[in-house]
Amino acid sequence: MKKVYVLIGNYGSGKTELALNFAFRAAERGEKTELLDLDMVNTYFRLTERGKMMDMKEIRLVSPNYASKGIETLSLPAEVQSAFAMDWDTVVFDVGGDPTGATALGRYHEDFMDLEEGSLEVLNVVNIRRPLAGSVERIISLQENIQRYSRLKVTGIINNTNLQQMTGPEELRDGYEMLKEVSIRTGIPVVYTTGRKEMTDIFASEGHDPAYYGEIMPIDTYMHRDWDSWIQFGIKDQNALGKTDA
After folding, report:
1. What separation, in Å, do the N-terminal and C-terminal C-alpha atoms of the chain show?
2. What's the CATH code of the domain at 128?
3. What is the DSSP letter of 155?
């Protein structure tokens, strides 16, 4: 059965990093894999920049037209339809966590609905150290709006709480506590807890309730972010899906 992962989340959640990790792991298992970049707004961190790496791992990459060409107005290529029409083992969508990105996903609502039951996972990637995900209320508000714009139901939450090079064990712990409350309130399970292996090893040894952390998934870092440059680049629509002041 084809497995389709849709990773969606707010700015700085780490969904692009996770999309790469999901795709690379599938390819390493010998699965025929396609990775689709539907982040239509955030042109600063693009999967296209790792295209050569994906070629080496025999992963097919589909990106918005004009990605990495200095043009900010992007459009979706016709090749997106290949995710549904072709015989892939694993398909990973990296979707911008704003109205534009989620609406882009919504264009394919009928195609998603035609997938075999149990093959689709829509995963909300959360990093509680980012401004739009700093409280239970903000996370739930963002998640509800993502569902509304994309016309898809979030099936699981990923705790990807980190502070890049400054990450300590408390990041995953704090993410666990906050997302446990989100899960209790919404009924949506936490299905993965992700991070650098040294951090996930510490977290796994601490005796947390597995019902609220799911599968512990150590990840590798491929997107080397320069956050100062990113901030200067601008995030003009960052509040579009997180309007609550809670």
Report:
1. 41
2. 3.40.50.300
3. -
Per-residue b or e along 89-122, where b marks 16 or more CB atoms closer than 10 Å to that residue's CB: ebbbbbbbbbbbbbebbeebeeebeebeeeebbb
Q: How buried is 79 (Cβ within 10 angstroms: 0-12 exposed, 13-18 middle, 19+ buried)?
A: middle
**Domain assignment present for 244:** no
Instruction: For tokens 């510490």, name the residue.
Output: 202
pTM: 0.84
Residue 233 lies in a domain: no
Question: What confidence tens digit (pLDDT) does each residue in 13-34 have?
Answer: 999 899 999 999 999 999 999 9
In angstroms, the CA 48 to CA 137 distance is 33
Block residue for tokens 């899906």: 241
What six digits make up the tokens of 216? 């512990």
